[in-house]
Amino acid sequence: MKSNSTKSQPPWLPMPFFLVFCLHVIHTESRVSATAAAVRRKLDDIAGSIDIDCGLPTDATYTDPITEIPYIADDAYITTGVNSEISSIHISDDLPVPLRTLRSFPEGDRNCYSMRPPEGRDKIYLIRFESFN
Questions:
Q1: How many Cα atoms sit within 13 Å of 49 on the Cβ side?
Q2: Which pTM value belongs to this model?
Q3: Using one digit for the tens of pLDDT, what is the confidence trace for 59-109?
Q4: DSSP 3-state of 19
Q5: Burial zone of 48 (CB within 10 Å; 0-12 exposed, 13-18 middle, 19+ buried)
C-alpha cells in the first residue's frame, strides 16, 4: 500500500526559478539595448540618411530615445494622405512616439513616397515599420 504522506515544500524553493527568470529578462533587455546601440553606430556611418516618421505634424522632429535616430515629418516626401494623431484613449507615457501619429490614405489608388537620397542609385535602404491594432 502506498503512503499518502505529502512532503511540505521549503518556502525558498521557488526563489532560484524566480532569480533565473529575472536574470533572463535583464540579459534580454541588455541585448536589445546593445543591439539598438550597434544599429545606431552603423547608421552613423551612412551619410545622407532620410529618417521620416509617417504622420508626424509638419516641421515636427524628435529623436528616438533608444536608437538616437532623429526623425522628421514625412510631408516633404509625399503629397497624398492625411496625418492624424491616434485616439487619446490609446496614448500613455509608455507608448513610443512613433506610434502616436499616423498617415492614412482614405482616397486614391496609389500612395507613394518619393525618396531621393543624396547618393542616388544602387544604395541600400533601411525601412522600419511599426503598427498596432
A1: 17
A2: 0.54
A3: 899 888 877 788 888 888 887 888 888 888 888 888 887 788 888 877 876
A4: helix
A5: exposed
